[in-house]
Amino acid sequence: MASFANEVKREIASAVTDKDKRYACLYGVILFCRNINGNCISFTTESMEFSALFRRITQSVFKKSVTVSEDITEKKNGGNIYSLSADNAEMILQKYNIDMSRREINLRHVVTNSLSSFLAGIFLICGSISDPNREYHLEFTLPDENLFEALHSVLLSIGIDGRKTERKGQTVLYIKDSENIEDFLTFIGAQQSTIDIMNIKIYKDVRNKANRIANCDSANIDKVIAAASKQTEDIEFLIRCNLFETLSAELRETAELRLENPEMTLQEIGEMLSKPIGRSGVMRRFKIISQIADELRTELKGG
Is residue 205 part of a domain? Predict the structure, then answer.
């Protein structure tokens, strides 16, 4: 079963279509690629769609002047790892005016309608996203610390804020706000993934509300049982002390209904009385019975 991250990459890979988008996407991939040395640019991915996209857009931008090679390794869980390399790294870097000593984003390579593809390329090469069933977290593990401010600025320009952290000596830009993640995925062409996250959020919200209701109901049931138990104890105490018959007819009728129906709520007992009364009226009667029983207990202790 494909991971959520691979599903996102599959979706955005299919959104890179025209010439400008292919050019901008490849720029994002190359600029944020970690392994650039000598004459080779290389990376590893678990996404078959990204592997195919990289070969396709490289061929589109550089024609036959750059060759892309691929090795496929099968993982233990049945998936594949795609190791790709593009030769003639020097020419590629010159094409995009990339200075390896200080990497910077040059938006001259990104026309207005292809900014989404540029960001898609960055996500494809160094981005990851957690399964939204577990948590909302999207991040970019950057190959150069200098790229953080530039990428952060580009994201802010489309209304998305990111945070910075360090992990294992690497700079990471991360986004944890679910709405920002949804906006980013929508912008780079992963609309279905956005819908999936929104559906998961709705499900989580409904489930949490159901749990709160269930917990509330459980707490209420516990309170009803505890109250009924105390009421029954008071009534039985008065019976043992031969004082039950001294109660008024209304109190005796209410008490008898409690003894016969220990599981009933106050509302239900009130409805069963010969002259029905509300919940608060039943509660007042049991309070009177409780006061009489408590006063008798105190007298017996004192005696």
Answer: no
Angle, alpha carbons 131-2-72 (nearest 5°): 125
Cβ–Cβ < 8 Å for 27, 118: yes
Is there a single domain that holds both residue 254 and residue 133?
A: no
For 111-154, the pLDDT digits (tens) are: 878 999 999 999 999 999 999 988 899 999 999 888 999 999 99
Bridge partner residues of 83 (DSSP): 44, 71
Contacts of 2 (CB under 8 A, 6+ apart): 10
At 74, the pLDDT band (50, 70, 90 cuts) reads confident
Buried b (16+ CB within 10 A) or exposed e, 73-103: eeeeeeeeebebbbbbbeebbebbebeeeeb
Measured over the CA atoms of residue 44, residue 45, residue 48 and residue 51, the dihedral's sign is negative
Residues 17 and 97 in one domain: yes
Q: Exposure pattern of 267-285 as b/e (b: 16+ CB <10 Å)? A: eebbeeeeeebeeeebbeb
Q: Which token pair is 303?
A: 């005696």
Domain assignment of residue 140, given as a range: 4-189
The closest alpha carbon to 47, from 78, 85, 91, 3, belongs to: 3
Residue 165 belongs to a domain with what CATH number? 3.10.28.10
Give me the number of domains the chain comprises. 2
**Beta pairing class for 40-45 and 80-87:** antiparallel
pLDDT band per the 50, 70, 90 thresholds, residue 217: low
Calculate the alpha carbon distances from 297 to 176, 191, 231, 289, 301 in Å. 61, 71, 15, 12, 6
* Euclidean distance between the first and the last CA atom of the chain, given in angstroms as a whole number: 77
**Pair 98, 154 in one domain:** yes
What's the CA gap between 283 and 285, in Å, rounded? 5
Element (H, E) at 109: none
Establish if 198 belongs to a structural domain. no
